[in-house]
């Protein structure tokens, strides 16, 4: 009944078989959205395209880091784009968390991947149902247009069940996080 | 080892995920996310929401040669930027801020030491080294202060903070963190106070020295 989204399948083909046709499809889907997204926060067309280029090349080069048990392609690309935008515009090297590598020995859990896809669908529906001003506030926040004080005064970001679903995906990496904390 | 009990509040995590947190705080959050499963899950949930906003973004037409250019670059060999990995008690983001070298401590007196990682007029982030039984030097905050324990533990008026725990203090909190018995307490601390900290600490320590 439920299947992985087209974007996820393209991304897995890029990650697992270095499939350039799949990458071209990802480019066609995400690059125009990325450019629109980046320009909305005031970046000019030329610089926005430079950022889009860097982001899409990072998607190709770092595809091994994509883990469909924890992330949607759009969310993974969102974070790459925000990091790149900040590095370029604020001219600082944004501190990023340690990368978590999936355990090679564990089989990918199809149930977990599908569960995350379902949560993503529910999330989009929930955003679609918001009142226009609430929805605009979420857009502003994730475009980086709100300060942390402004975010603090916003309540009810619809993240409830997604957190527990992602946590399940992370549980599979839990031993690694434990190592990270205890080897001191 | 005890479980982490003091986490990054959700609005600070959201600000980090959306890129609206300044660099000193971002370093503390990135470091906690390298140690804490719970906050990592919440952070990745924010990424997912960001992804949904990206999916809904209106598209902009691309220059004709952008895609051709990117496709042509796929096979260009790249020298990967060296990622700073964890070293001892210091997670990757701290090692990146230290540029891969061990901290260069500066004494603040009474065995307390600091190592400033970055600082400008908007804020600063430093490593603090507090011997057991010693108090963190007096340090009023004008705004948000984020402190993360990397080794040992401290207690203050609000509770006990162990490895991985993050304390969030604002201007209303008057507190005196004291390192507990055991190994020296090493913390990563970000404030919006400029580097004044450095200068006024010795003066505040004077009464203790009875100079
Ligand atoms: Zn946490
Ligand atoms: Zn404080």
UniProtKB/TrEMBL annotation, chain B:
| Tree of life domain | Bacteria
Gene3D superfamilies the UniProt entry points to:
Anti-sigma factor, zinc-finger domain, Jelly Rolls
Signal peptide range: none
- Could you tell me which residue ranges the ChrR-like cupin domain spans? 104-189
UniProt xrefs under InterPro entries = Anti-sigma_ChrR (IPR012807), Anti_sigma_zinc_sf (IPR041916), ChrR-like_cupin_dom (IPR025979), RmlC-like_jellyroll (IPR014710), RmlC_Cupin_sf (IPR011051)
Q: What is this protein called?
A: Anti-ECFsigma factor, ChrR
Organism of origin is Celeribacter halophilus
The organism's lineage is: Bacteria, Pseudomonadati, Pseudomonadota, Alphaproteobacteria, Rhodobacterales
């Amino acid at each position: 009944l439920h299947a992985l989204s087209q974007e996820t399948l393209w991304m897995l083909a890029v990650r697992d078989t270095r499939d350039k046709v799949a990458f071209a499809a990802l480019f066609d889907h995400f690059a125009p959205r990325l450019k629109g997204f980046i320009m909305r926060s005031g970046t000019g067309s030329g610089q926005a395209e430079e950022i889009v280029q860097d982001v899409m090349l990072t998607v190709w080069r770092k595809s091994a880091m994509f883990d469909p048990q924890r992330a949607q392609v759009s969310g993974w690309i969102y974070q790459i784009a925000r990091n790149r935008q900040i590095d370029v515009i604020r001219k600082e090297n944004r501190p990023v968390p340690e990368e978590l590598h999936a355990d090679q020995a564990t089989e990918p859990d199809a149930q977990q991947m599908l569960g995350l896809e379902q949560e993503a669908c529910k999330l989009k529906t929930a955003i679609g149902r918001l009142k226009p001003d609430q929805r605009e506030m979420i857009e502003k926040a994730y475009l980086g247009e709100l300060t942390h004080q402004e975010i603090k005064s916003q309540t009810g970001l619809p993240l409830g069940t997604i957190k527990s679903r992602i946590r399940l995906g992370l549980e599979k990496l839990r031993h690694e996080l434990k190592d990270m904390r205890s080897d001191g | 080892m005890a479980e982490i009990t003091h986490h990054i509040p959700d609005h600070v995590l959201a600000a980090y995920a959306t890129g609206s947190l300044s660099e000193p705080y971002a370093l503390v959050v990135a470091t906690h996310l390298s140690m804490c499963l719970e906050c990592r899950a919440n952070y990745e949930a924010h990424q997912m929401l960001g992804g949904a906003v990206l999916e809904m973004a209106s598209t902009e037409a691309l220059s004709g040669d952008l895609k051709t250019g990117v496709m042509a670059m796929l096979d260009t060999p790249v020298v990967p930027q060296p990622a700073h990995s964890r070293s001892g008690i210091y997670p990757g983001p701290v090692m990146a801020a230290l540029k891969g070298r061990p901290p260069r401590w500066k004494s603040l007196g009474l065995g307390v030491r600091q190592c400033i990682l970055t600082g400008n007029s908007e804020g600063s982030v430093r490593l603090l080294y507090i011997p057991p039984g010693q108090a963190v030097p007096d340090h009023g905050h004008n705004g948000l202060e984020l402190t993360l324990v990397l080794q040992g533990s401290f207690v203050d008026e609000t509770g006990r903070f162990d490895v991985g725990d993050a304390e969030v203090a604002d201007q209303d909190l008057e507190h005196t963190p004291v390192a507990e018995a055991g190994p020296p307490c090493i913390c990563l601390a970000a404030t919006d106070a400029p580097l004044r900290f450095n200068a006024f600490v010795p003066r505040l320590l004077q009464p203790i020295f009875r100079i």
